[in-house]
Amino acid sequence: MFVLKYVQMNKHIIVRVGEIFLKGKNKNFFESLLHRNIKSALNKIDCKIKRERNRFVVCDFADCDLSNILDKLGKVFGIHSFSVCHICDSNYESILKLSQTLIPLDKKTFRVNSNRSDKRFSLNSMELSRELGGDILKQHTHLSVDLHNPDFILFVDVGVEYSYVYQDKIFGMGGMPVGSAGHGLLLLSGGIDSPVAAVLAAKRGLSLSAIHFHSYPYTSEQAKQKVVDLAKIIAPYTGSFKLYVVSTTKLQEAFNKNCEASYSITLLRRAMMKLSEDLSVKIKAECLINGESLGQVASQTIQSISVTNSVVKNIPVIRPLICFDKSEIITLAKKFNTYEISILPFEDCCTVFLPSAPATRPKIEKVEKEEGRIKNYEELLKEALETVEIIEI
User: Fold this and answer.
1) What span, in angstroms and rounded, lies between the C-alpha atoms of 57 and 175?
2) Distance CA 42, CA 217 (A)
3) What are phi and psi of 104, to 5 degrees?
4) pTM confidence score
5) What is the C-alpha to C-alpha distance for residues 162 and 377, in angstroms, rounded to an integer?
6) Smallest Cα–Cα separation from 153: which of 111, 99, 114?
7) 50 vs 318: CA distance, rounded Å
8) Is 243 helix (H, G, I), strand (E, B) or coil?
9) Helix, coil or strand: residue 18
């Protein structure tokens, strides 16, 4: 007779790290950051999070919270995969008994994958897989072993105190823990592209703040709310952040009154970039992030990007979508659940005073000449930043 220290069907979740595994002496920094991010994602759920070698274990949660936990873990960057598993004592009899209860009756072929982290265990990984497979076959005569293409795989991880038995690996988002690559300021519009760019930037470890430009009363309160709603959808991926809402109304009125119409979009985007860099200094952001895709629209030709980028003097501009086509971006927007809100028909500031034929190959000399037509240009930029509204997301 043997007695399990834990209830046989008590569920745990093994969470495996991704690229962090390769970080050598800096690995502890990345694992600690990922630990913090997992805690933050699950902070409203009653559970425990244990840190083990190269992985984490979520336990002591109610069965009714399992689906919610899995959904939230699926949005935490730095996680390679996770598995819902059951635990037992780390001896062969306990492992076999638990394994027998987890065999699906509707499957015909299987294999056992074992991993022995406790090297004091009497069998090595290959021996354990072979012994378990043989004993399972004795009781479940409908099964046969298929090492290459089985109907299911029984995974066994042997630890020091207890062992895990499970069947499935759910792949996570990968990437690096948010916060490990510094702090970026996202130019967030109400369109399809910038929310996707936000998630991809977070995937590489950037923590985010966001800036949104509006032109009230030419744009509506609904247009601003649309951006707030998008920010709330991306927050589970990026973590909590501040959304800075800035008015460009007076700047756009000045462009419309004093400048050549075909350059209005170029002038507006340069102003946005300048205002974003100025804000980045105040909030200590180390880069700007936008949703530009090369050649997608007139303001995203290589010439337009070069002209608008030239006003940013001290920090890099990250463009996660620069080589994506629209269909690829839409696929990601649907995956991240931002698409349906992004296509709501509320206009943003870029549609205000929209020229019939925007410049696609602007020259820096011409653009600077057009800006020079606005005598109080620097004052308008300063005044725009003074309109900032801060929304906690």
Assistant:
1) 19
2) 40
3) -75, 135
4) 0.90
5) 68
6) 111
7) 35
8) strand
9) coil
